[in-house]
């Protein structure tokens, strides 16, 4: 299993001991993220979802 090492301009977040590496540009243009990490009947589940602000050009 390869581990990614954050680049200088990446943003690193830690949730329950798990480090999440996100690209700086993604973080800058996204209003937020939902990070879900839990044990389930089928094993560990981990997801990072972007919150969308809705709207558009106007």
TrEMBL record:
It comes from the Bacteria. InterPro entries: HesB-like_dom_sf (IPR035903). This is FeS cluster biogenesis domain-containing protein. It comes from Caloramator australicus RC3. The lineage of its organism: Bacteria, Bacillati, Bacillota, Clostridia, Eubacteriales.
């Amino acid at each position: 299993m390869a581990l990614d090492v954050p680049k200088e301009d990446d943003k690193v977040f830690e949730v329950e001991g798990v480090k999440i590496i996100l690209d700086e540009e993604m973080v800058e243009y996204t209003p937020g993220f939902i990070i879900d990490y839990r044990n389930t009947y089928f094993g560990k589940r981990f997801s990072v979802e972007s919150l969308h602000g809705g709207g558009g050009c106007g």
